[in-house]
Amino acid sequence: MSTTFLLPTLLLAALAATATSLTLKPGCRPSCGGVDVPYPFGIGQGCFLPGFEIVCDNSRPILGNTKQAIEVFVLSLSVTPRPEARVMVPITWQCFNSSGDAIKWSISTVNYNRAGVYRISNNHNELVVLGCNTFVYTNGGPRGRSTYTYYTGCAAYCDNAQSARDGDCTGVGCCHVDIPPGLSDNKMRFSGDPDWKNPGMPFSLCDYAFIVEKGNYTFQKADLKMDLETSKPLRLDWAIRVNNGSSLSCAEAPSMPGYMCVSQHSECVDSTNGPGYVCNCTEGYEGNPYLHKGCTNLNECARPREEYPCNGVCYDIDGSYDCKCHLGYESSGDPKENPCNPKFPLPARIALGIGLGVSILVFALLLAFIMHQKRKLAEHFEMNGGNILKSVIGLPIFTEKDLKKITKNNSECLGNGYFGKVYKGTLPDEAIVAVKSFIKVDKDRIGEFTEEVKIQLKMKHPNILKLMGCCLQLDVPMLVYEFAAEGSLRDILHWKQNQKLSAELRLDIAIGSANGLSYMHSEDIRHGDVKPDNILLSDKSIPKIADFGLSKLLNPGEKFTKKVIGCQGYMDPVFRNTGILTSKSDVYSFGVVLLELISRKKVEYGESGSLIIEFRHIYETKKSGRSLFDEEIVAEKDILILEEIGKLAMQCLKERLDGRPGMKEVAEQLVKIKENIVHTTATTLR
């Protein structure tokens, strides 16, 4: 072992040995069961002052010199600043039969005065009585006008099982009262008066009494059937009380043999609970005053300034401390009480102070602004689910600075989305993207938002709009998607009337959209809001299913979810009536999209106000939807395409779920329509 390592090790060992030697007698056991045992307490012969024995029984510290039938378990022992022992004492109880006669009981008496050492602390304990018809009292002190000097107790009563209330100890089922000083025994006395008989009520078969540390017990109705083996914490005051058969005060003790304040820097203090005295270290010293050299210098400079004030530099000295101003500063009095001020002339101090003040203020404001911005970014990141999403593999998370660079400070607005504006942007790899605002996220929506991001990231399909990343440092999270150059199907169908849409293109859009939804269903994902607004087209008119704000990922084995609400015009009536969203709900909504695709008419249409009702009517009466087809489709082969799509739409729009095809079947039927057209065209050309 190197010297460098050995010296600190030896020093720590020496300090530990010194600290131990200042609290207990040499060669004595320092603790038991995790409880420190400072002198005058001790374990084993010659290690304790008479009356202060601690018995260590299988690592359980037991208070010695008490009634041996009851073990008093020690929780803690202290010498200064308060001479005290915290112990656990069994409760007193008596139980009754149905006639109200006591049939078993436990008095749990502990005489703490066998060696004249302990008194039950009147300042830190109280007497508690539990029961539904009981009066309990305790007593202590030498004989006075009656058998004892002190009597105290209280009565508890309850009429029925509902009378007592949790937390209420004011006489109904529970009462409590302060105890007088001088008590040296916790013996309880239950009243023998017949009026206090307990008739064996099922909700209160026993009465209980105990002295307990204040603040350590709160009444519960269930305690009216308390475990009979229960113990409660109690605080004992102790003092040096007996010297040659008499208790001495500080006026007498120092001149008598056996005086216990033996440390050089110790003093005598009269006991406040019973006769006798205790020892303290004098001001400026700390430790154990009952041992020679037990009181050592207190380092005031290492303590909080509230305890030992100093407006300059603190210097520890034996038994006290000194305080001096820093170099270049002075005080009008003692720096312990008066501030230290610079020695510069007043004008120089003013000029320097103003200059420094302005500089510090500017710096502080700038620093505060920067810290505020960082804190705000961090708060937004956390509120928007950043702590959850940062661990999601494959999800790029952009900073606010990144997003400003991507969108060139939001210089090109593409329009307004459902929740806010949509901006065009460019990633570092030159990929064109659309940056969209999401709904404001709060603590109730974090789970919903992060679930949606995970759903979108999970989907990889040419007909699903790809999520490229997100920014979570803003007040409202921003989602970054691949760019769909031609906009939404709704815009093309209803706003760009001059844009020609061939029957084949409409069929391709239907096929791609169906494939995208079929893929979602295969991944146990329901869209929940299928409509032309949420079908985007790339520059090559490839459809992309978008906007999964209402989507929910199903748990394994689930077939439906109740968490989604969609647009009324496209909503499955079964879902509207039951609240249950299934894959067939998306099929219904897609059927509405097919009708808009072949008619180029909005879902709110005609005398009935519903495109769906109008189509159903003409199909039922004319067996064809030709009269509602888009007027720009005139070629007979194109009319046939729309006719087949219309028939498929009617299947999707059936009222019963079991009458509708699945989305995979819809996609397959659309592909067959296209194959039939190609085959028919090839045959015609031959």
UniProtKB/TrEMBL annotation:
Protein name: Protein kinase domain-containing protein
PROSITE patterns xref list: EGF_CA, PROTEIN_KINASE_ATP, PROTEIN_KINASE_DOM, PROTEIN_KINASE_ST
Location(s), subcellular: Membrane
UniProt GO BP: cell surface receptor signaling pathway
Membrane topology reported for the UniProt record: Single-pass type I membrane protein
Signal peptide per UniProt: 1-21
Transmembrane segment boundaries: 350-370
Superkingdom: Eukaryota
Binding, ATP: 436
Domain (Protein kinase) ranges: 408-682
Keywords noted in UniProt: ATP-binding, Disulfide bond, Glycoprotein, Kinase, Membrane, Nucleotide-binding, Serine/threonine-protein kinase, Signal, Transferase, Transmembrane, Transmembrane helix
InterPro entries: EGF, EGF-like_Ca-bd_dom, EGF_Ca-bd_CS, Kinase-like_dom_sf, Prot_kinase_dom, Protein_kinase_ATP_BS, Ser-Thr/Tyr_kinase_cat_dom, Ser/Thr_kinase_AS
GO CC, any one term: membrane
A single GO molecular function term of this UniProt record: polysaccharide binding
